[in-house]
From TrEMBL:
PANTHER family: BLL3936 PROTEIN (PTHR43849:SF2). The chain crosses the membrane at residues 30-47, 59-78, 90-111, 118-139, 159-181, 289-308, 337-355, 361-382, 402-422, 442-463, 470-488, 494-520, 532-551, 557-579, 591-608, 614-631. This is TRAP transporter, 4TM/12TM fusion protein. Signal peptide: none annotated. It holds the Pfam family DctM. Keywords: Membrane, Transmembrane, Transmembrane helix. Residues 118-542 form the TRAP C4-dicarboxylate transport system permease DctM subunit domain.
Length: 642
């Protein structure tokens, strides 16, 4: 079965690379073929474990879903022009039957991949679309017939085959291939070794390993939960082995995996969808994301330092590195150059000459293939080692990278196809307009109330979903209200809902990212969520800064944007300091100091009046100086008394 999965993965990437190079068919038709390939990879990969567990019912359902997918894919491609152009809105009885079977397969695969939370969203959207005429009040609508739903979801080449599926196929897939190749060629080991070396210079260096490794890896793979499982499998045990409490280790990993989703240049693949929805360049989106990412990373690194440095035991960095792998300086240099070149190609093609995202991703993936294959072979020849053995090993790594990239891509493609169906149903029934009116009524036209409600909606709608899926839902349902009714700039509104959606991974009672990290750490779920929120506290405030200070996400790195970003950063540091710093004096004085740092930090981050921000910055600096003097006096007093 493993060989079958590998062949399916290679076939999928052959299709993706062929289309990116030739663009020889309509994107909608390519999307039909792509989602079929992704479903095929997912099913074949899952069948390995299912057959090993002798779960024959699940195996039968998976195989049935595969047969249905193949059947509808072949049929749609044979009749593509008819369905897509000639008779849109009309279908034959056997086509309705085929579409119904495919709907059942998507529902089953979505439930199997992402559980009951997402299943309830998908089934709820279907029921809402069908029974809309029975719903009283403003949420009611005329109802969509059975045939209309099936046309919308599949037969008109919309719904499951719509713009999200096509976006994954044309833009995101090649970056996920790049992520798979990075992993198989050893990039993550290189990042990990570099992060561990910082322990020589920073007390919390081992814990910072999770922040650096998970953020970099998570920025590419598009799912904070999957990232927590992948990087947490080695960062969490390492933190625990060096003295960090299980719940703290799990919380740090959960936050690090979450922050990677908003880290440029890939931003968990959400940047591509944002650029597409707003009709702006990808470069504008990642430029807009730089200042928030800087604020976020500095705050989290500081929080991790405060928390972890008091728990960590001393660590023998050289011994840890020896355990990881016996690598020479030459090996490290070769690996570094091997990975920097493709990344340089990505930055050059996207940021300098501004090629299309698909072309840039293709050049990046191909460059990664070239450097990943040739560098180890040339190094083996230079060191008089067996070139044949090196070639065999690097080709094996390449195939593993193709397989890993496909396995990462498959569930993301499936859930985005399902989300596309949900979005099309909701758009057809007019829900965005309804939510706009409802939010206006509830908020009374007060922006602060509206954005608080919006944040709650974003967290609820983002539960249990990958970054790209969660962002898409809230971008289409929540962001338009902020733009149309409260005149929030487009980028500010979209960054607000983007950050809001990913917070669901840290927010109880679901907190899927924290749940995965807690499982790996063998820690209590609630305690892990508590530790994660302590680290990520400014991340819950930062989205409101986008609303009241949109200059920091304007897409232009002006002096005013940078200065405002620094003020907001100071506010975030104040929040972290107030929550996590170990003050050296009495309980009530300590509580008062924590509250003061927290409140002033929030005001400095969010308050729209610049004068208040300046005053807040002055108060923060004054509080810090007074706290340091008070702590020093306490320490001196203790010394005298002793």
């Amino acid at each position: 079965m493993g060989g079958t999965v590998t062949l399916a993965a290679l076939a999928l990437w052959a299709l993706v690379i062929f289309y990116a190079y030739t663009v020889s068919m309509p994107r909608a038709q390519y999307g039909v073929l792509f989602i079929a390939g992704a479903i095929g990879v997912y099913i074949l990969n899952e069948l390995e474990d299912v057959i090993a567990d002798r779960d024959y019912l699940d195996a039968a359902l998976l195989l049935g879903s595969l047969v249905i997918t193949i059947a509808i894919t072949v049929y749609v491609n044979l009749h593509f022009r008819e369905l897509y152009i000639d008779r849109v809105g009309y279908a034959f009885p056997h086509e309705y039957a085929l579409a119904a079977a495919f709907l059942a397969a998507i529902v089953y695969l979505s439930w199997r991949s992402f559980g009951l939370t997402f299943l309830s969203i998908l089934v709820g959207a279907l029921l809402y679309g069908y029974f809309g005429d029975l719903i009283p009040g403003i949420l009611g609508h005329s109802g969509l017939s059975y045939s209309r739903l099936l046309l919308l979801l599949a037969l008109d080449i919309t719904g499951f085959y719509g713009f999200l599926t096509q976006l994954v196929a044309a833009w995101i897939a090649l970056f996920l291939l790049y992520a798979g190749l990075l992993e198989s060629y050893g990039a993550f080991d290189l990042i990990f070794r570099g992060a561990v070396r910082t322990s020589k210079y920073i007390d919390s260096g081992v814990a910072q390993t999770a922040v650096v490794a998970s953020a970099v890896i998570g920025s590419i793979n598009g799912s904070q939960t999957a990232n927590a499982g992948m990087t947490g499998s080695f960062t969490i045990p390492m933190m625990k082995e060096n003295g960090i409490k299980p719940s703290t280790a799990g919380g740090i990993e959960a936050v690090a995996s979450t922050t990677g989703q908003v880290l440029p240049p890939v931003m968990g693949a959400g940047a591509f969808i944002m650029a597409s929805l707003l009709g702006i360049s990808y470069v504008t989106v990642i430029t807009a994301g730089l200042i928030p990412a800087m604020i976020m990373m500095v705050c989290i690194i500081l929080a991790v330092h405060y928390i972890a440095s008091n728990q960590l035991d001393s660590i023998d960095v050289d011994a840890v590195l020896d355990e990881l792998e016996d690598r020479t300086r030459r090996d490290t240099l070769v690996d570094t150059v091997k990975f920097i070149i493709p990344f340089g190609v990505l930055v050059y093609t996207l940021g300098v000459i501004q090629l299309t995202v698909m072309t840039s991703a293709l050049y990046t993936a191909v460059t990664m293939l070239i450097t990943g294959i040739t560098f180890p072979v040339f190094q083996a020849a230079y060191e008089s080692r067996s070139v044949t053995a090196a070639t065999r090993e690097t080709l094996s790594d390449t195939v593993a990278g193709f397989r890993r990239g496909a396995i990462i891509t498959a569930p993301i493609a499936i859930i985005l196809a399902a989300i596309n169906g949900v979005v099309d149903i909701l758009m057809t029934t007019g829900v965005p307009g309804i939510l706009t009116l409802s939010m206006m009524d509830i908020s009374g036209g007060i922006m602060l109330v509206a954005v608080l409600i919006s944040m709650v909606i974003c967290i609820l709608l983002g539960l249990g979903m990958p970054t790209t899926a969660a962002y898409t839902v809230v971008a289409l349902l929540v962001a338009p209200t902020l733009v149309s009714r409260f005149l929030v700039p487009d980028l500010a509104a979209h960054f607000f809902v983007f950050y809001g959606a990913i917070l669901s991974g840290l927010t109880p009672p679901i907190a899927t990212c924290a749940a995965v990290a807690a499982g790996i750490a063998n820690a209590d779920f609630v305690e892990t969520c508590y530790e994660a929120i302590k680290v990520a506290a400014p991340l819950f405030v930062l989205p409101f800064s986008f609303i009241y200070h949109p200059v920091i996400v304007s897409g232009v790195l002006s002096g005013g944007a940078v200065f405002t970003g620094l003020l907001i950063l100071l506010g975030g540091i104040s929040i972290i300091h107030g929550i996590n710093y170990r003050f050296g004096y009495g309980k009530w004085a300590q509580l008062g100091t924590r509250v003061a740092f927290f409140v002033v930090g929030v005001l400095t981050m969010v308050y729209p009046n610049s004068t208040v921000q300046y005053a807040g910055a002055g108060v923060i600096i004054t509080l810090f100086v007074v706290q340091q003097l008070a702590t020093r006096n306490v320490a001196v007093g203790d010394t005298i008394n002793n």
